[in-house]
Design goal:
Length: 216
């Protein structure tokens, strides 16, 4: 599902070091369409973190892990679609956070509950008119107790709407991505299981997102 020609993005040169290209075709979004409205859409621990940055000037592509962070380099990229699964969605804030290469949410800072609990490796982007977003980071590790696959948490906030969480990004074929895991998936925002592909010396995780319909 992640094979195909590399499509270059028309982005400002200043962003080129963070996001250069899309390394695959649209990801498998899971069992769509006709997903019901989730009455529990806003039940979410930590979604307040999505709102900890002013959205006005957020870029579409940003770093999570800083230069020098230990771990394998990884790029996350995707397109956010409206609930029809076809129309790109602009101005959607995406908040991502993940463990470090030892499986810990380490080096949190004291400003807020979520800056403490989510650790250093977190960042915010906002989709452009084409719905695209991306992050440059490192590949997280599973928790030290190995009770979960390695994962990247994603939360979204659409303009004027409350934030909600999506299915985590997890890596197909790796620890914990089992039949049991698949059976528990919610498919929030589509399928979070991605197959990593290689783009030179960096892993690429394509995670397209279909926004959820909002409860009345
Ligand atoms: Fe986690």
């Amino acid at each position: 599902m992640l094979t195909g020609a590399v499509a270059l993005l028309a982005i400002p040169a200043c962003k080129a070091s963070v996001q250069e290209s899309f390394a695959g075709n649209r990801s498998d979004l899971g069992p769509r369409p006709a997903a019901p409205v989730r009455t529990d859409l806003y039940n979410c621990e930590g979604c307040e973190g999505t709102l900890e940055r002013q959205s006005a000037n957020l870029p579409a592509f940003a770093r999570i892990a800083p230069d020098g962070e230990t771990g394998e380099a990884m790029r996350i990229e995707g397109i956010v679609y409206l609930p029809d699964g076809l129309t790109p969605a602009p101005d959607v804030v995406i908040y991502a956070h993940h463990t470090d290469a030892t499986g810990l949410y380490s080096r949190g800072t004291p400003e807020t509950e979520w800056s403490r609990r989510h650790g250093l490796l977190r960042s915010w982007v906002k989709t452009g008119a084409d719905g695209r977003y991306g992050y440059r980071t490192i590949k997280p590790a599973p928790y030290p107790d190995m009770t979960m696959p390695a994962h990247v948490h994603l939360m979204v906030a659409e303009p004027g709407r409350r934030p909600y969480y999506l299915d985590d990004i997890v890596f197909d074929g790796e620890h914990g991505v089992t039949d049991a895991y698949r059976s528990r998936m919610e498919y929030r925002g589509g399928n979070g299981i991605v197959r990593l592909v290689r783009d030179g010396d960096i892993w690429v995780a394509r995670r397209d997102i279909v926004l959820e319909r909002h409860p009345a």
